[in-house]
Give the backbone structure.
Amino acid sequence: MDALRLSARGRHGGDAPFHLGRAQIDPTSREATYGGRSERIQDKPLCVLLLLHRRSGQVVTREDIVDECWDGRIVGDDVINRAISILRKLARRAGGFRIDTIPRAGYRLVKDEDNRRAQSRAWRILASALIAVAVLTAAAGLLMRLRGPVIPAAPTVSVLPFVASGGPDAAGMARKAERALVEMLNEAGFTMAPPGQGDLIISGEVAPVAGTTRVQLLAGLTASGTPAMSRTLESPSSHADDLPIQVATSAAELVSTITELWTLDGQMADPAFASKVFAMIEAMGEGNLLGAHQIALRAASDYPNSAAADLMLASTYGATLEVFSVPERRAHVQIARTMLARRRSYAARFGNFGHAWCLLRPRAWLQDCERQLRQSSKSPTRSNSSPQRLAELVADVGRIGEATRLARVAAAADPYSPASSGVLLQLLEIEGRHREAEAVYASAIRKWPDSWTLRWNRIMGRAARGDFTALDRFAATIPRAEFTFDAEVLQKGLAAYRVGDRQGLRLACGRENLRGSTRQVCVAALAAAGETDASFAIALELYPKQAGRNRAEDEALWLERPAYFTLSLLSAPAGAPLRRDARFLQLAAQTGLLRYWRAGPLPDFCAGPRPEPVCRNLRMAASPARSPLSRNQRG
């Protein structure tokens, strides 16, 4: 074991003392000495510092830090953030070095002497470059045309002092929430400005209300002078310890979204346009997708030259198809596809481009969508949803192990999204990594205590695993009023499964108009109970035919029924009884899975030394060269 791994366990004796800036660091004594004083460094921050020092000038990822200093154990983002914060305070006190955040990558240790050398090289280069100024100036117009539009600078962010009313407890909470917010925004690498001087202003008001502590988070532009949006976060006063991190996470998610749109074309600097964006974000947060679409439609109409408006509208077109008639869906799809094609040059700066592209194509085009998501996943924007969507798609086609790895990356890259944490949570449950899933859930529920997304993903993961005892136990902790499954059906069905009452399970799952999520649990429970006929009857309806004889038929089937349910259950452990039945191939064919497997990688249940018997049939029929999915992307 190398010295760095020893240091991760608090044994730093293998590292000799070294100078860092104006400080001398002694790993053995864990002391930093500078300016005639010394201080002890905590064990974990010291391990992080050693890792950064050994790779000075290079990017060190969060995964590297977790692997080396926490032995690969799952730790919350706040733990790493705290270690980095401690080291940055040391750097400010000692001087001569700093730790930079590299957005969506990790951290880098920078020493003053590195800066001086870089500056010296820069001056030499500048002297030579001045000679070529005349030539470059003459070519400037051509270069601008070749390089495309100038990318606007990211907005600066100011955090105003939080206002408190109602006594010392509220004042203390205001200070904690403000401090947590500033630390998170700094940690995320947003460009901060003094209070009141940023492009985007965040403030808050804290007050006790009927036994609770309520924080009203306010956001707006300096140019408008008034808040454009508010969010309310609330917790019982006796359990308000997590409110600061909830406030910080909510604000950071908002700033992340605004920053991405701002850097598309700078239109966000217009208060009138910004007010529409804030309203759209608020509508989406409330689950009002149609309202968000209508706001985006007005924004695109009022600002026809705005790439941000076009891309927002194209995204909401794809998310609202279900509420329109088939002819309207067809028209909307063509409009949105044209918008995306017109704005394709912005794809690298719009992290949701791949997801929007997939929303506007038939669900059976799994390989085409995967290709788009992989390309969009490279976008450096903080609010990039494509890595999360890619993890979901890879899980749908049965590569659960790869999907879990992708979900880890997505959750680390977008720590402000409960959806990203939720997808990781579901996949960990499917793989049976229950201890790790518990750690992810505990960390996430602190940030989003009212998030149904987290609860839904945990239930779906346990159902796909076939762990109905754990599912029942977890479901019992959720208040009935917060349940978005059919609570009574789920309760009766699980009770029947628990005692082996197959008829009771069939009756519970056979009710009409059940929600899709409830039907997914029923498919898994009925299959596990040996009721494969009843399980297939629900599954064939839940996963309707989406794959036709050609791409035109794919389009027609999709526009008829654009609703979509995750397919990962079919490849998960709970789907094993279905895969032993001949009807599974019909199910795989009508969803597009069979087409994908015959043209691309096989699922996990076909890997390893003992592939399941059904795998013999997955490669039969058309070769990849004849598959519609192997053609160039169209439509």
